[in-house]
Specification:
The structure is a single chain. The chain is an alpha/beta fold and 324 residues long. The protein is 27% helix and 28% strand. The strands form four sheets. Strands 1, 2, 3, 4, 5 and 6 form a six-stranded mixed β-sheet that branches. Strands 12-9-14-13 form a four-stranded mixed β-sheet, sandwiched between helices. The two termini are 37 Å apart. The structure holds flavin mononucleotide. Flavin mononucleotide is lined by residues 9-15, 45, 48-49, 78-82, 107-110, 136.
Length: 324
């Protein structure tokens, strides 16, 4: 999949979401900038709202885009007076994306952008593969927001399957007598488990690795090691196995501390975060090159910098709770 997200954002809500989706899927970003910027503030809302109601098509700053490069085009906009913000009208009036895989992201104060999404659907002229109708992302609960973003990213990437087999659990986390193959749709009311492993040394640095550019999800970003829990495993078993597979390091399970445990209903996932304190010599690490392209010890400041540049895995948005 080669994807681009074309967006307009006045106050940064749409921008924060599209940055995350780009991080999770590797999609390119194109920001639409009107020649005459829309003002912020209460009174100006009335004028901009009127422009949206009249389906204005303002002139945009020139942009560089070759649509032939992309099979998937996502459009993203705030909801203005129940409609898309006018810069998106201009983009859709001048670019035919009806033959592409498409997706729509709308952000609003009310959280009810369905009328706006329907209007965009009509303008595109085909059925989107993914729609996100989100309420003020900058004020959202981060766990819920990540669930919404991950579920959109999964629909955007589309179905893919591997040989991995997963156990299924009920909503309380009890093991069911059911299994599934990765990539298949998870049955309603069922969950699977995923895990992340943070390894800290006695200097207070964390062992982080860079995802291979070949990965379908989040290519090229830095992260801690992690993955899905296979059949018959606990999340601790999976943590130890993932580190062995990706870094060639043997962790002692008895040294693992469960630092975080969350449930993500839209993704049908339980997510456990394990922390290990180990002084590992980088020279002893054997990278699994299809998965990982680099590994380093990093401080929280290093990660802050990567986060600002969107080069840290968005799934690890909680890193400040773990790193100190
Ligand atoms: C001109 C204007 C009109 C708006 N109209 C609506 C509306 O009709 N319904 C709604 O729920 N939110 C409305 N909002 C709120 C925005 O949709 C919401 O704050 C959105 O998340 C902003 O995205 P942004 O920060 O990327 O610009 C409006 C905001 C502006 C500036």
């Amino acid at each position: 999949m080669k994807a681009i997200i074309v967006y307009y954002s006045l106050e940064g809500n749409v921008k924060s979401v599209v940055r995350m989706i780009s991080n999770l899927t590797g999609a390119d970003l194109l920001e639409l900038v009107p020649k005459v910027p829309y003002p912020t503030g209460k009174v100006s809302k009335y004028i901009s709202g009127k422009a949206a109601l009249s389906h204005d098509e303002p002139e945009l700053m020139p942009y560089d885009l070759d649509l032939d490069e992309y099979d998937t085009v996502i459009v993203a906009t705030p909801v203005w007076a129940g409609n898309p913000a006018p810069p998106l009208n201009t983009f859709l009036a001048t670019n035919d994306i009806s033959e592409k895989r498409t997706g729509i992201i709308v952000s609003s104060m009310s959280g009810n952008g369905s009328k706006c999404a329907d209007r965009i659907k009509k303008m595109i002229g085909s059925e989107p593969v993914c729609v996100m109708d989100v309420r003020e992302p900058k004020k959202q609960d981060p766990d819920l927001l990540m669930d919404i973003e991950m579920s959109f990213a999964r629909d955007m990437i589309g179905p893919y399957s591997t040989h991995e087999e997963w156990d299924l659990f009920d909503e309380e986390g009890n093991l069911l007598d059911m299994k599934m193959t990765r990539g298949a749709e998870i049955p309603e009311g069922c969950y699977h488990k995923i895990v992340s492993v943070w390894i800290r040394n006695t200097k207070g640095e964390y062992l982080l690795s860079k995802r291979s550019m070949e990965k379908l999800v989040s290519p090229g970003v830095w992260e801690c090691t992690g993955g899905a829990v296979d059949v018959g495993e606990t999340t601790l078993d999976a943590a130890v196995r993932e580190v062995k597979e990706e870094l060639g390091i043997d962790l002692d399970p008895s040294r693992g501390v469960l630092a975080r445990s969350t449930k993500h209903d839209l993704m049908h996932e339980f997510y456990d975060v394990w922390v290990f304190e180990e002084d590992i010599d980088i020279a002893d690490i054997k990278l699994q090159s299809e998965e990982v392209s680099d590994v380093r010890w990093m401080t929280k400041k290093d990660v802050d910098e990567l986060w600002e540049k969107d080069e840290f895995n968005a799934l690890l948005y909680y890193y400040k709770d773990i790193m100190y």
